[in-house]
Amino acid sequence: MRLLADAWAYLATADNWTGAGGMLELLVEQLLLTVTALAAALAIGLPVALWLGHLGRGGFLAVNISNIGRAVPTFAVLVLLSVGPVGTAELGPYGRAGLATLIALTLFALPPIITNAYVAVREVPPEIREAARGMGMRGGQVFRRVEGPLALPLIVAGIRLALVQVWATATIAALVAGPGLGRVITDGFYRSNYAKGLAGALVVAAVALVLELAAALLQRYADPLRPGRHTSVHEPRGEGGTAATVST
After folding, report:
1. Do the Cβ atoms of 16 and 198 come closer than 8 Å?
2. Where are the domains of the chain?
3. Could you give the CA distance from residue 195 to residue 201 in angstroms, rounded to a whole number?
4. What confidence tens digit (pLDDT) does each residue in 115-140 have?
5. What is the pTM assigned to this prediction?
6. Is 199 in contact with 181 (CB distance < 8 Å)?
């Protein structure tokens, strides 16, 4: 209990949050790292996974590459990058070893994004695809109007998982003198200031909870079949000027 009280006292001290190297600056650094790494992983992995899922090919390759990515320790990748050409140089607002940390976190975020996106598209019932094609839709229209909306909840679930994992894992950047709240944790335990280390860990956990709740709300909103939401797929108008509608 004394340790928790000391950690709370550390968090309640304004000087620990402000100035260069303060908690607020490190918090912003870690958020920036997380968002950038997640955006890079989405830009790289999501189009490939959705395309393969739509074609129904390459699933074995996509899933197994993702599994290999899960098996490789992120810290090992970070260490290898930090001693290589990427090094520990400053990268603008990302701080020291910013590029190495971004690459390692991006690779870490890819597996859940790729796996969930591919599986999400492939799990769309084939009879729904056939119904859409029977209404005259082409491949791109089937994906945009049918597969994409129905796959969206599971895709967002993968993004949600990647977001929280990347945020929590970003703390290891401090082990190679990188940015983020991990510096508070490592410095606290290195100097036997356990209250400081615990305070940093509590902030990381609190932000992770906020991110998880926000992503859960987004996932629920993305579900086209949630109660109270009405979606329709309209067949292109024919010569008679009428349109068929399939509602979900």
Report:
1. no
2. 2-247
3. 10
4. 899 988 888 887 877 787 778 777 67
5. 0.83
6. no
